[in-house]
Amino acid sequence: MPVPPDEPTPPAPPYDPELAEAAAELRRTTPETAEVDMVPALRAAVAAYPEVTDDQLTADGAWEVAEDEAEGVPVLVCRPTAPAPGPLPVLCVLHGGGMIVGDCRQGVLDPLSYARELGCAVVSAGYRLAPEHPHPAPVEDCLTVLAWTLGKGAAAHGLDPGRTVLHGTSAGGGLAAATALLARDRGGPALAFQLLLCPMLDDRNTTPSSREFSRAVAWPRADNLFGWSALLGPLAGTEAVPPYAAPARAADLSGLPAAYVDVGELEVFRDECARYALRLAEAGVPAEFRLWPGAFHGFDGALPRVALSRRAAAEQVAVLRRALGGC
């Protein structure tokens, strides 16, 4: 994979004071991993986390949880147990994991916390992973789950296809953007909104921030290069990469659903996310962008109780409430 030459960069701004101590500890305890070892190492690390249990998902009876399939793709469906007056708005969730780790239970607890405030259901997709399943397998699975959510899944689980948000974080955010592009170009299904949190959008790795954070707290440059090469193989970084793999490459962003894009100030994805949000607005797509000062990749998931993370969560809930018609 072609790697742009390193260039001098100005000193990074300081971390948010509440994040700084955690950033130092994460840097100290996170081992550097050779590319050939990354897939097993990352999967072993994820496997070592406590499993997301049914008790956590049901949240003391607040949620009904069902495992289902969307044309063979595993999905997790979570509905509020309180009776609803009609079909429920839904967050269709695509988990993060650099395209190479994760499943439909990973990363679902934060969307469930938003959904609880909003009275939404959550459908979480277990898309296939690279490198065993390179592009286009992951994005095709995500489109399959989206279509199922708005069709058979809506009928089976009481969901409102007119109020469906596609929500992804990191690699899942990139897949959400790619799925929205693919849905537009194939004539549907139609979405209400895209919630793209620190999305992984551009395989080229040529922006200043993509070069700057070679020693990032989370998901540094080398990890990002490896994630893209796992998804794209020898095509990564070349002109042969389609926008349904790397949405930043899309020439035309018009006709997409409205979007919210956020990213940390001190991470590889900063510049590609900012540029994508601006290009959405230039294409006539309602777009809101938030750059979180002094924040590293995934800060709000890693440290949900600090003030900056609480601000981010509150803003995401407010954005979703507006997108779903004030629910």
Describe the structure.
It is built from twelve helices and eight strands. The chain is of the alpha/beta class and 327 residues long. An eight-stranded mixed sheet has the order 1-2-4-3-5-6-7-8, sandwiched between helices.
Map the helices and strands.
Elements: H1 17-29, H2 38-48, H3 54-58, E1 63-70, E2 73-80, E3 88-94, H4 109-118, E4 121-125, H5 137-150, H6 152-157, E5 159-169, H7 171-185, E6 193-197, H8 208-212, H9 221-232, E7 259-264, H10 270-282, E8 287-292, H11 299-302, H12 307-323
Parallel strand pairs: 3-4, 3-5, 5-6, 6-7, 7-8
Antiparallel strand pairs: 1-2, 2-4
Helix pairs in contact: 4-12, 5-7
Primary descriptors:
globular, 327 residues, eight-stranded mixed beta sheet, alpha/beta
Poorly predicted regions: none
What would the principal axes of the Cα set say about the shape?
globular
Order of helices and strands: HHHEEEHEHHEHEHHEHEHH
State the major sheet. Answer: 8 strands, mixed
Radius of gyration: 19 Å
Structural class: alpha/beta
Strand content: 15-25%
- Tell me the strand order in the biggest sheet: 1-2-4-3-5-6-7-8
Number of helices: 12
Distance between the termini: 46 Å
Q: Let me know the number of strands.
A: 8
Portion in helices: 25-40%
What's the pLDDT, averaged over the residues? 91
